[in-house]
């Protein structure tokens, strides 16, 4: 290998180390407090733990129950993602229950409403509307039903469903631009093509000035009158009504957002009930963080002090590799928005030992090479060559174990697997690239003991 090629390789290695070090520091800024830097799990930052039970599943076979739970989990996943509840964990629990962990949730009641809402959206014809909550309305048919709007005013509705929420493809919160209602929030509905056709068919059954109630989970949110213009639009086909329907009302921003989310995510296939709710306070979370961080820092500092005592200047190389690997582990957690849990902290502590272990193996091999009388540079290259297979064997098997835990395990096990996996890859990079660069180019190899083994 030519000298110029070696120089290029050295610059590439130096560039890689600097980019990773500077990039890690940038990702981790402002470094403290941890809650502002990392996504912390329920056990570290507190939050809400809910156990939901699907109703009316007793008569179903196992496959049907599995399908119902899978649909519930998918819908809840969509809801919490859209609502911005970061790091939520939603998983199956037995045959008819779902566990929901919501770390950092500030409003448990709001989260519970979002999770539990069935989102049954119905469009029904209004027979008669009350004028106040005290209006005394009497249905004239067994098919008719009295429902209340959000102000408690009763309405008599036809039993026939003209349209359901299944016809929707999207729902978004909008602010009114009209002068009379400027800034007032409403929900703009967007129908699928099939849904828009169903809406057209429904409108054709109504006459001008009829009222169409928009009912969400048994509550009337609005009951607009059918105008001549909407009738004309319906007569022209589904394209004219596909994205021109709205739900209006005196919504708060939070309420409008929640309604739009549950409409987008779809209706839950069965009713669900909250059977268990635990709120983990921030005090317990901060105690866990403190204990975990003290453990990490204590182990980290003890190793940093021990390595130079035992290995002299070579210990400095191991310390640099360890510091860089810790930066890499935390930076990758931030970069991929992974969640740090208490078991994850255990994985980081294990990583500290693994990083040092890799350097110890390399140092011992280099010392063996040096004892045979080889020059410092030749001893370094020989030491890395001879330790490579041992390092790869140990780290690759550990990485495979971490991957198996990540894909098969759940909850805390995944947290451990994530930090362990990142740590394994980081320790290999730090040992094989960073440590080698320091030994070959920064002069640390000169401090390797020269004790030549005499051959008879």
Could you give a short description of this structure?
With 456 residues, the protein is an alpha+beta fold. It has helices spanning 3-28, 34-37, 42-45, 62-83, 108-116, 193-204, 228-235, 253-265, 282-311, 313-335, 342-371, 376-408, 412-441, and strands at 39-40, 47-54, 89-93, 97-103, 121-129, 145-148, 154-157, 163-164, 168-175, 185-191, 211-216, 219-222, 245-248, 272-280, 339-340.
Query: How many structural domains in the coordinates?
Result: 3
Under the CATH scheme, which class of the largest domain? Mainly Alpha
**SSE succession:** HHEHEHEEHEEEEEEHEEHEHEHHEHHH
- Helix/sheet category: alpha+beta
Number of DSSP-assigned strands: 15
Average pLDDT for all residues = 80
Low-confidence stretches: 1-5, 452-456
CATH superfamily grouping of the largest domain:
Multidrug efflux transporter AcrB transmembrane domain
CATH architecture of the largest domain: Up-down Bundle
CATH topology name of the largest domain? Multidrug efflux transporter AcrB transmembrane fold
Task: Describe what this molecule looks like in 3D.
The chain is of the alpha+beta class and 456 residues long. It has three domains: 3-37 and 281-447, Multidrug efflux transporter AcrB transmembrane domain (Multidrug efflux transporter AcrB transmembrane fold); 47-116 and 276-280, Alpha-Beta Plaits; 121-249, Gyrase A, domain 2, CATH 3.30.1360.200. The protein contains 13 helices and 15 strands. The strands form four sheets. Strands 5, 6, 7, 8, 11 and 12 form a six-stranded antiparallel β-sheet that branches. The chain has a four-stranded antiparallel β-sheet with strand order 3-4-2-14. A three-stranded antiparallel β-sheet has the order 9-10-13. Helix 6 (193-204) crosses helix 7, helix 10 (313-335) runs antiparallel to helix 11 (342-371) and helix 10 (313-335) crosses helix 13. The longest helix has 33 residues, at 376-408. The model is unreliable at 1-5 and 452-456 (pLDDT under 50).
